[in-house]
Amino acid sequence: MSGDGAVSPTLRRRRLGRQIRDRRTERKMSGTELAKRIGGINQARLSRVESGKATLTKVQIRKMTEVLELSSEQAELWYELWQEGDQLGWWSEYADVIQEHGEMLAGLESDAAHIRQYIEAFIPSMLTTEEYSHAVVYSSQNTKPSDMARSVEFRMKRQHRLNDPNFRYTVVIAEGALHRHVGGREVLARQLRYLLDTQWTATVEVLIVPFEADVYAAQGMSFEIMEFADPEDPECVFIEFAPTSGFLEKPSELRYYNNMWSVAASKALDVEQSRERIEKVWADLIL
After folding, report:
1. Considering 31, 90, 111, 258, which has the largest number of Cβ atoms within 10 A of its Cβ?
2. CA distance 78 to 72
3. In what ranges is there compositional bias, type Basic and acidic residues (predicted)?
């Protein structure tokens, strides 16, 4: 849940989409058939609705509750979810400079109770300085020069989630990220100092996988697992920097990535040792 206590529209859309898919399956109806009976929507659009990436019109949600033969009480619950999911989150103002999965990621992060992340290439966005974030965005081939400033602003705004005392963030970082001179030696030094000075709280846990660790399956990947407080909202995995970049939520996929994260975490130094490793790299940079 976001810091102000409200549930984000992204999570509402995801919940409604999952209920639509479950009810359609229960009624033994294909997506193509349901889309045809609703009207004004095709199977591809319906698939996006069921995955929480798109919404329906007021007429379409009402028609859907009729076609799927919901009780009046359940139909009203769906309508309420639709209304809440049709709102705009803070991330919507950046829709012109970020990809669709970036909007959805920000929306889900704003409601996650606990995020567990594994990352190799960089310091994670949740814990970066503005100048480090700028260097990462500048190096991207997907961001136009005119969009750089607002893309950095979006990345920095995601960090506001850390201000919620009920939110937990646990990240496993491969040591190589501490040595990669993103933005140059001085930018990296300030980034590591920032990590040491400001991000070691009761709700944030940073674990470093040292160079000397044995090989493990998560190497070469970056992903985060989001857990939600409400049991109605199952875990979700976001895979980043990969050809299959996107969101996964099938039970088999969740088991796979939970296992990969746990193994990576088992290879990491503990919290205090991780802090010492970061401090050593920082000290070498400022010599």
Report:
1. 111
2. 10
3. 19-31
56: amino acid identity, one letter: L
The residue range of the domain holding 111 is 94-285
Residues facing 246 on adjacent strands: 239
The verdict on residue 3 lying in a domain is no
**What is the pTM for the complete model shown?**
0.88
Q: Is the dihedral of CA 177, 178, 179, 181 positive or negative?
A: positive
Secondary structure element (H or E) that encloses residue 21, with its range: helix 9-26
Q: pLDDT digit string (tens) for 9-18?
A: 899 999 999 9
From the list 275, 121, 277, 259, the residue with the least C-alpha distance to 210 is: 277
The pLDDT tens digits for 67-105 are 999 999 999 999 999 998 888 889 989 988 888 788 889
Supply the CATH number for residue 234's domain: 3.30.870
Query: What's 34's domain CATH number?
Result: 1.10.260.40
